[in-house]
Amino acid sequence: AKLQHRGSSQYFSPAMGTDARERFKLLKGLRAGFEENRLFVVYQPQVDLTSGQALGAEALLRWRTEEGNFVPPDQFIPLAEKSGLIISIGEFVLRTACHQTKRMLELGYADFRMCVNVSLAQFRHQDFITTLLRALRDTGVDGRNIELEITESMAMEDTELVMHILADIKRSGITVAIDDFGTGFSSLSHLRQLDVDRLKIDRAFVREAQSSSAGSTIAQMVINLGRGLGLTVIAEGIETEEQRLQLQALGCHEGQGYLFGRPMPAEQLERWMAQGTP
Ligand code: C2E
Ligand code: CA
Ligand code: CA
Ligand code: CA
Question: Per the database record, which ranges form the EAL domain (predicted)?
Answer without folding.
Answer: 23-277
